[in-house]
Amino acid sequence: MSETLGETVSNAINNFVNETFQKSNSSAKIPATPEGKLVAYTALISMAVVPIIIGAYRSVAYLEKQKLTGEKPDTITKDDAMKFPLVASCMLFGIYVFFKLFSQDHINILVSFYFFILGIFAMAHIIGPYVEKLIPASFPNLPYHLHLTEGSEENKSVLLDLDFDRKYVVSIALFGLVSGWYAVKKHWLANNLIGLCFAMNGVELLQLSSIGTGCILLIGLFFYDVFWVFGTNVMVQVAKKFDAPIKLVFPQDFLVEGVFGKNMAMLGLGDIVIPGIFIALLLRFDKSLKRDKNLYFNSGMIAYFTGLLTTIIVMTVFNHAQPALLYLVPACISVPLGVAFYKGDLEAMFSYSDEKSEKTEPEKQEDTKKSD
């Protein structure tokens, strides 16, 4: 009896170990349940909304900083906006051809190294200041100045002029570990952390020259997105094969597999950054009006949320990838402009630009004298 019981226990342990080992090494995807999809898409919507809000407010602070330093921002002009869909199409098709002609593994090695570097500095810009505040005051911090020039005295040009300290070096090392984690493991948590930082950087630093320019850019990318998703399978194939943090993902089998889930729902960063820079411009317009409520920013965020929710509903019903800008662009343009028309701010909205708002009071007085 004791031998039979021992064999039974031994067999049970062996079966448990074998099943666990097979489960951990299995690449099979668990089918998404309605509950799993709800969790995944709720997470994606949240991760899409947050970087737009944070990036928009950071863009206001970035503009204020430029006013103080006198720097001129690199803005997206109307010419840039009209060319952008064509340039983006060439880049997208070029990547697709590369995957057809060359080994996907070799391409992804190069891409991993490229985004390893970009990811470090993207996280340093967004999260770095908060990490440095957590470093104890007893830390032996010292400043450094890195200055690199090229040429002789007469033809000398500055290649690098960087001020930093030891706390910054510590944060860079920490973010290097996160980027290394993504490069080696490709874990979706590392992907999302880097991707969110990319999105916030994009919304903060990419500035549209005017509302009209933003409308041109959004409408052009509306047709770009529709063509490459519905007209061909290029965008879907690139999104699946391009192993880089250019999209946010969340496992639809999260309720079963947790952080080890493999059945991913995804949202491209372009569907966050492109509408996001337009919504950030709306916030800067709100600030220029000096009113209590950020009416146009709030209307833009409501429109974005509604458009993204519509995208997910249609995608779920028809079980087919959807070009998110097909739903986001009409919403993000029509709702704020409709509110502006109702409030009588439409002319002021289209005449607004960051460059005009950057003028100091003496400059404005000088312009008034010239016009008189």
From TrEMBL:
<dbReference type="GO" id="GO:0006465">
    <property type="term" value="P:signal peptide processing"/>
</dbReference>
<feature type="transmembrane region" description="Helical">
    <location>
        <begin position="205"/>
        <end position="224"/>
    </location>
</feature>
<dbReference type="Pfam" id="PF04258">
    <property type="entry name" value="Peptidase_A22B"/>
</dbReference>
<dbReference type="GO" id="GO:0098553">
    <property type="term" value="C:lumenal side of endoplasmic reticulum membrane"/>
</dbReference>
<dbReference type="GO" id="GO:0098554">
    <property type="term" value="C:cytoplasmic side of endoplasmic reticulum membrane"/>
</dbReference>
<feature type="transmembrane region" description="Helical">
    <location>
        <begin position="264"/>
        <end position="283"/>
    </location>
</feature>
<feature type="transmembrane region" description="Helical">
    <location>
        <begin position="111"/>
        <end position="131"/>
    </location>
</feature>
<dbReference type="GO" id="GO:0033619">
    <property type="term" value="P:membrane protein proteolysis"/>
</dbReference>
<feature type="transmembrane region" description="Helical">
    <location>
        <begin position="295"/>
        <end position="318"/>
    </location>
</feature>
<keyword id="KW-1133">Transmembrane helix</keyword>
<feature type="transmembrane region" description="Helical">
    <location>
        <begin position="38"/>
        <end position="61"/>
    </location>
</feature>
<feature type="transmembrane region" description="Helical">
    <location>
        <begin position="81"/>
        <end position="99"/>
    </location>
</feature>
<feature type="region of interest" description="Disordered">
    <location>
        <begin position="353"/>
        <end position="372"/>
    </location>
</feature>
<dbReference type="InterPro" id="IPR007369">
    <property type="entry name" value="Peptidase_A22B_SPP"/>
</dbReference>
<keyword id="KW-0256">Endoplasmic reticulum</keyword>
<dbReference type="InterPro" id="IPR006639">
    <property type="entry name" value="Preselin/SPP"/>
</dbReference>
<comment type="similarity">
    <text>Belongs to the peptidase A22B family.</text>
</comment>
<protein>
    <submittedName>
        <fullName>Presenilin-like protein 3</fullName>
    </submittedName>
</protein>
<feature type="transmembrane region" description="Helical">
    <location>
        <begin position="324"/>
        <end position="342"/>
    </location>
</feature>
<feature type="transmembrane region" description="Helical">
    <location>
        <begin position="168"/>
        <end position="184"/>
    </location>
</feature>
<keyword id="KW-0812">Transmembrane</keyword>
<keyword id="KW-0472">Membrane</keyword>
<dbReference type="GO" id="GO:0042500">
    <property type="term" value="F:aspartic endopeptidase activity, intramembrane cleaving"/>
</dbReference>
<keyword id="KW-0378">Hydrolase</keyword>
